[in-house]
Write a structure and sequence with these properties.
77% helix, ABC transporter involved in vitamin B12 uptake, BtuC, 15 helices, mainly alpha, disordered C terminus
Length: 328
């Protein structure tokens, strides 16, 4: 049912926009293009946008469930713990400091992925060290927020020193969008994200063991340090790549694992990881459709849509946690 929901929302994403496209025109636009305006819109704009939304939603959702399992914290997520901010700092270095990538013969998209991955991994390492030292969920969230503010301050310094053209491109990127990845750039998004999601599928057994705690996981024969290292690499790859191409997308990585747990009522990652990936893809497609609804003053910002949907879920999580603690 989740796969069918993703397919349905994918088709809707091809139809909705400032220029309405009829359902009967989609097959012809995809398989037998005739050069018409509607055919070009579907193939060059909406199809890459829908693929980007589906893949990015899956990547953010899977990175969210990996982080929540790694830190055993229901409020862990790429945007909450500052990983998206670290990835944004890496992207800012590439976009605002032009000689960094224009001098070397390396594709710009590859620079974006590498910079975002390094930035996200750096923040993730700092948060992991803080978690080992403090072991307090509230303190960990505060540290993540402070790291995010520090990255934002450094980004502001780079913006003040950057050129007007680079600054405009970075500001537009920072608003978040699934529509900025053309068909010629999809390769650089698909390969890292699909590899990371596949790696998460291969880690379901260690993830289930880590729910019991590191000591119990070690007694079950799980290499805790190796599993943590792999989870960190996959999380940095997923969150960093999506942030590099789509901007800092809020709430999707945080709320999607909780929706999967509520629907399936299980903590078994054999079910949660694929369910979270599909729900993340469906939510991202739904947000993309809402953001592209024709309005008088243009389209809605993507982060505004994800915040409107995600903030109530976070409040529900916090209220549920308080109720559970009172009952316990």
């Amino acid at each position: 049912m989740l796969a069918l929901l993703c397919a349905l929302l994918f088709v809707v994403a091809l139809l909705v926009g400032t220029v309405p496209i009829a359902l009967v025109d989609v097959p012809a636009a995809l398989f037998d293009p005739d050069g018409s305006i509607s055919s070009r819109i579907v193939r060059e704009v909406r199809l890459p946008g829908a693929v980007t939304a589906l893949v990015a939603g899956m990547g953010l959702a899977v990175s969210g469930i990996l982080m929540q399992t790694l830190f055993r914290n229901p409020l862990a997520g790429p945007s909450v713990l500052g990983i998206s901010s670290g990835a944004s700092l890496g992207v800012a270095l590439v976009m605002l400091v032009q000689p960094l990538w224009s001098v070397l013969p390396i594709p710009r998209d590859l620079w974006l992925v590498l910079a975002a991955f390094i930035g996200g991994m750096g923040v993730l390492l700092l948060v992991l060290l803080a978690d080992r030292r403090m072991g307090n969920a509230v303190s960990l969230l505060i540290i993540g927020l402070m790291i995010g503010h520090l990255c934002s301050a450094l980004i502001s310094v780079l913006q003040a020193a950057g050129s007007a053209t680079a600054l405009k491109g970075y500001v537009l990127w920072g608003m978040g969008s699934f529509s900025g990845v053309g068909s010629d750039r999809l390769f650089w998004l698909l390969v890292p994200v699909c590899s990371g999601v596949l790696g998460a599928f291969l880690l379901v057994k260690p993830l289930n063991a880590l729910l019991l705690g590191p000591d119990q996981a070690a007694t079950l024969g799980v290499s805790v340090h190796r599993s943590r290292r792999m989870i960190m690499i996959i999380t940095g790859l997923l969150a960093g790549t999506v942030t590099a191409f789509c901007g800092p997308i809020a709430f999707l990585g945080l709320v999607t694992p909780h929706i999967a747990r509520a629907l399936f009522r299980t903590s078994d990652h054999h079910r949660l990881v694929p369910a979270t990936a599909l729900i993340g893809g469906a939510l991202a497609l739904f947000c993309e459709v809402l953001a592209r609804l024709p309005l008088a003053n243009g389209a809605l910002p993507l982060n505004a849509v994800t915040s409107l949907l995600g903030a109530p879920v976070v409040v529900w999580i916090l209220v549920g946690a308080q109720r559970w603690s009172r009952t316990a």
